[in-house]
Structure formats: C-alpha cells, structure tokens
Amino acid sequence: MSSSPAPMMLTSGALRSLVLLLQGLLLMLLLPFRWGYVLQGRRSVERSKDGKVVVRVPAAMVPQRIVRGEQDEALARRAMAIERVRETEGGDVRRGYSVFVTSRGEGLFTQSWAPVSGDIKGVVIILHGLNEHSGRYNSFARKLNANGLKVYGMDWTGHGGSDGLHGYVHSLEYAVNDVKVYVEKVVAENPDFPCFLFGHSTGGAIALKAALDPKMEALVNGIILSAPAIQVQTSHPIVGVLAPVFSFLVPKYQFGAACKTGLPVCRDPEALAAKYADPLVYTGPIRIRTGSEILRISSHLQQNLCRVNLPFLVLHGTADTVTDPEGSQKLYDEAASVDKSIKLYDGFLHDLLFEPEREDIARDIIDWLTTRYGSCLE
C-alpha cells in the first residue's frame, strides 16, 4: 500500500506534461488562419467637450485585463459610429442610421446612404469583412448613390457600432440569420426596387450562405462578392480538428503568437494606414471561436456551391494572401446560376475597394449592377 502513491504522482506529472505539450503545440500550429493578421495603428489624441484629453489606441495595444465591460466598450464604439454619420450629413447624399435589434436582443448598428436628387433605381446592402465595419465603405456607397442606388450597411455582431465583444463572433449563423431579417426589412421599406447584396471577405461568405435560402431568392436580385471567404487555409491540417474543441473551451481567447504582423491587404499605403488607425477596426489577435466559425462556414459553402442560383459577380485579386482566389473560381465553376460572372485582377490583394485601382473596380461593379437593375425595371 505504501508504494501505491508513486504511480499516481507519476501519472499526474505525465498528464501535466502532456497538457503543457499540447498547449505549446497549439500555439505553434494556430499560427493561424491566413486572415489572422495584425498591424499596429497609431495613437490619436482628441479633446472631449469638457476639455479632457482622450487618447485612443488600437485594440492590439490595449492589455485585455484593463478592458472594463464588453457592453460599455460596444456603446462607445456605437457613439463613434453615430458621430461619423452625423459629420457627413448634408450635400448631395442623405445619410442616416438606426439600431436593428435581433431576436437575441443584440443591437446591430445600421446606416444608409441615399441620393438627395434623382430617381432611385435599386438598393444595395453592404456586408463588411472581418474586423472592419460598414462605415469604411462610405466612398463606395456614394459612388453607388451617384448611379441611382440607395445603399444600406449593417455592422454584424461584435463589429463596428454593434453589440458584442470587439472582434468576437460566437456564431456566424447568427450573422447569416441577421442578414436575412435585415434584407426583409430593407425590401419592405423599398418594395418597388430591385435589391442586391454586396459582401466582402467574411461578409461575402455570410451573404453567400444567406443566398442559399430559397426565401432569399425571392427578395434578392443578385449578389456581388469581393474576395469572399469561400476557401481559407490554415497553417496545419490539425488546426481544423483542434479549432472547434478549443473554441468551445476558450472561445474568446486571443492568440497573440498567431498574428502575422504586416500582412498586406492592399497596395495603397495611405489606405492601409487609415484602416489600422481606425478605432472601429479590430486590430487584435483573432479570437479562437471567430476563427473556428470562419473555417466552419467556409467548409459549408464549398460543399454547397452547386446550390447557388442567384445571379452573381465575384471579384478576387490573384495575389490575395487572406482568402484564396481558387475559392472564387470554384464558385463560378460549380454554381447553378445561369447569370454568373467572375473578374480576377492580376496582382491585386485582398481589400479590392481600397486598392489603387479602386475606381476601375467600382466601375466594374456598377456596370454589372446597372445591367441587372435596368432589366428588373423593364
């Protein structure tokens, strides 16, 4: 009996060693997802109305332990998003915002751009990409306005001015369902106009999965996908096996070692600097559940591309290192849509609408849209 504790101690020690080994292995292998990049933004110093100095820094520079309350932080982001809308009111575009409450009780920040003069011929709903927000598409929305299109944007959960921990997505299925409800709302408000969905990156994956619903086919006249997250790659095959497990155990955990500092997403240095200096853009390490959800929706889409029936235009840069352009080609090859188009831009990176040739890309999109909304009104 006196010898029995020894094997127990050895077993406990072996288990501790195994746990440490697995943790180290996970940190190395979750290098992660190709989209898990971080660029440090610059600090900005502002003065509040009461004269106090406020220093804003990107999320990646804020130690997690000093963040006080997810809801307070979300409300601060919403206030900033509202202020940006108000700052750009007037002129030839009428801007507005509202908070769309989901069935889960989450408030999602939405905004709109409408031309002051001229006839409205169609509606476009913008779905931003991972870690960004709809306000980044202000310039693009105004180009659409100039071509007779009213534009709406929705910040999905955990992004921009919407509720949720910044950069955290508990389930992309929530975002898909939110888009469906929001599309119904927008169509009800604009019953006489054709409606189109525009989605970038993960927003493109959300739009595409929503479009698989037969009910959406009756509401949406076409979708435009910019560098959609149909095919994403991990640093090692085992990541796909481990990610769901760790997303359940520690869903909000951030892997600082997993960030690819300096990964370029566009070739315009000013646009790149502006993106990562924007406090509404999440610049921290990717959260485990968020990454796992992107892998999950990507896998689902690859297995169901043949079910896509809506007209679509997919655009991708051939040098994109965040989402794989082969996924867009696969969509074009396998989709059942009769009306489908693909444009691959040689040497372009991930954020197509922020590339130096953004005017040409916007024109390609507008040309595709005008042909479709013109035929819808005949």
UniProtKB/TrEMBL annotation:
Residues 119-357 form the Serine aminopeptidase S33 domain. InterPro entries: AB_hydrolase_1, AB_hydrolase_fold, Hydrolase_4, MAG_DAG_Lipase. SUPFAM superfamilies: alpha/beta-Hydrolases. It comes from the Eukaryota. Signal peptide: none annotated. This is Serine aminopeptidase S33 domain-containing protein. It comes from Acorus calamus (Sweet flag).
